[in-house]
Amino acid sequence: MINKTDGVTLPLPLGVCSIPICVKRPLSVKQVWWPMLRIDSWLACFQKEKPQMILGGHDYSDSTSWKAMLAGFWNTYRRVHEHHKVFSSGIPLDSCILYMLHGDEGRGLCHVPFLVISWQPAISFLGPTCYSDCS
Q1: How far is it, in rounded angstroms, from Cα 88 to Cα 52?
Q2: Distance between CA atoms of 10 and 7, rounded to whole angstroms?
Q3: Backbone conformation region of residue 58, classed left if phi is above 0, alpha if psi is from -120 to 50, else beta
Q4: Backbone phi, then psi, for 119, in 5-degree steps?
Q5: Dist. CA 34–CA 12, nearest whole Å
Q6: What's the DSSP call for residue 78?
Q7: Are 16 and 36 in contact (CB under 8 A)?
Q8: Per-residue pLDDT, 129
Q9: Phi and psi of 17, rounded to 5°?
Q10: Considering only Cβ atoms within 10 Å of each terminal Cβ, which end of the chain, N or C, has fewer?
């Protein structure tokens, strides 16, 4: 569960993955199980609880609107990146939810490197015309 300060929670299962960790003393590398929140868990939660977050503000039941929005995005994107794998995948473009992925390395305890990967839907819940500070 993810808790916010106002008591709101999300039912996200905590996953684990095996990753190599550098140990300073004695100097070595060992595999450890590391906790993570999987992107597919977030998507499943949003699909069930708040689909507007991943469908550009549209409700899941309004499939005509969000499918037209997604198809419109991919048709425009094809003009600048016609060889993207999504176009040869055979997956209907009006069902491909796009997101942005960002990875960054920070420093943890004792200045040990720590990788953080974050993601967000590329189309805001405020709609495709909202790019930044849409009040």
Answers
A1: 27
A2: 10
A3: beta
A4: -145, 160
A5: 16
A6: H
A7: yes
A8: 83
A9: -140, 155
A10: C
59-68: b (≥16 Cβ within 10 Å) or e: eeeeeeebbe
In the chain, which ranges are E strands? 2-3, 9-10, 15-23, 28-36, 99-107, 113-121
Nearest alpha-carbon partner for 113 in 24, 15, 1, 32:
24
CA atoms of 39 and 45, how far apart (whole Å)? 10
Which structure tokens are listed for 13?
A: 């299962």
What is the C-alpha separation between 129 and 123, in angstroms, rounded? 8
Q: What type of residue is 8?
A: V
Give the end-to-end CA distance of the chain in Å, rounded to a whole number: 30
Instruction: Please answer whether residues 15 and 36 qualify as being in contact, where contact means their C-beta atoms are separated by less than 8 angstroms.
Output: yes
In angstroms, rounded to a whole number, what is the distance separating the alpha carbons of residues 71 and 54?
Answer: 14
Q: What is the pLDDT of residues 50-97, one digit of tens each?
A: 899 999 999 988 899 999 999 999 999 999 999 999 999 999 999 999
